[in-house]
Amino acid sequence: MELVFASSNQGKINELRQIIADLSDSISLLTIGDGVPEIPVKESGADFTENAILKAKAYARVTGKPTVADDSGLEVLALNGAPGVNSNRWYPGSDGDRNRALLDKLTDKSDRMAQFVTAVAYLPDSEAEPQIFIGSVSGKITDEPRGSAGFGYDPIFIPDGYAKTFAELGLAEKNKISHRAKAFKKFADYLANQYEKQ
Ligand code: IMP
Questions:
Q1: What DSSP element (H or E) covers 172?
Q2: Ligand 1, pocket residues at CB < 6 Å
Q3: At what angle are helices 10-19 and 179-197 packed, to 10 degrees?
Q4: Number of domains in the chain
Q5: Which of 153, 171, 175 to mutate to test the pocket of ligand 1 (most atoms within 8 A of CB)?
Q6: Cα(157) to centroid of ligand 1, in Å?
Q7: For residue 70, what are the contacts with CB-CB under 8 A and spacing of at least 6?
Q8: pLDDT in tens, 115-158
Q9: Whole domain around residue 153: which residue ranges?
Q10: Of all atoms in ligand 1, which is nearest to the CA of residue 73?
């Protein structure tokens, strides 16, 4: 089967490819720019799940193929879950600017608890009920950015059980425990199960 992944982010595409590698005889992944045109989708959902469904629906309608999409972000407890669905746009500028702005907001806060969350939505066809897979990783926000790997908030997030930020741990280590890896793994297990039933 051809499976559309509504993403052009090479990091995410590699991660999903790796996780569904066992199914590579049955599934061929089509991505934006590689068989799938880019469609503008307004991420107007109230949460990660709604946004993932909006993306998956839009791509399933246009391609007519089974489609998967994801939406992720960082929730900081002391900020009542912000920046959440607005993680990539709540503050103008670069990832580094947003990290600095987030640290500024937390200067007088002793509670540094936060979590990354990913929602994955899968639609066998555009009219089907979406299947949702959630992954999360808890941790805390540092006082200063540390490390250079990864992207986004990686330099200011230390996952529970570790002393290093995601940006210091590096991609191989991060991808074993990340919110996205967990959500993709649940999706891969679901797909494998569907194939076993056939
Ligand atoms: P997306 O929905 O996966 O594109 O993520 C939206 C935004 O959340 C990104 O632009 C980042 O700011 C943040 N984000 C999501 N996942 C991660 C991650 O693994 N590390 C750091 N930041 C992330």
A1: helix 171-177
A2: 71-74, 87-88, 116, 150-154, 166, 178
A3: 40
A4: 1
A5: 153
A6: 12
A7: 7, 12, 52, 55, 118, 119, 120, 121, 180, 183, 184
A8: 999 999 999 999 999 999 999 999 999 999 999 999 999 999 99
A9: 2-197
A10: 8
pTM of the model: 0.95
Using one digit for the tens of pLDDT, what is the confidence trace for 58-76? 999 999 999 999 999 999 9
The residue annotated as part of the active site, out of 22, 47, 71, 111, is 71
* Ligand 1 atom, smallest distance to 180 CA: 19
Known catalytic residue: 160? no
| CATH of residue 160 | 3.90.950.10
Any idea how long the chain is?
Answer: 198
Strand locations in the chain, DSSP E?
2-5, 28-32, 35-36, 67-76, 113-123, 131-141, 157-159
Question: DSSP state, 152?
Answer: T
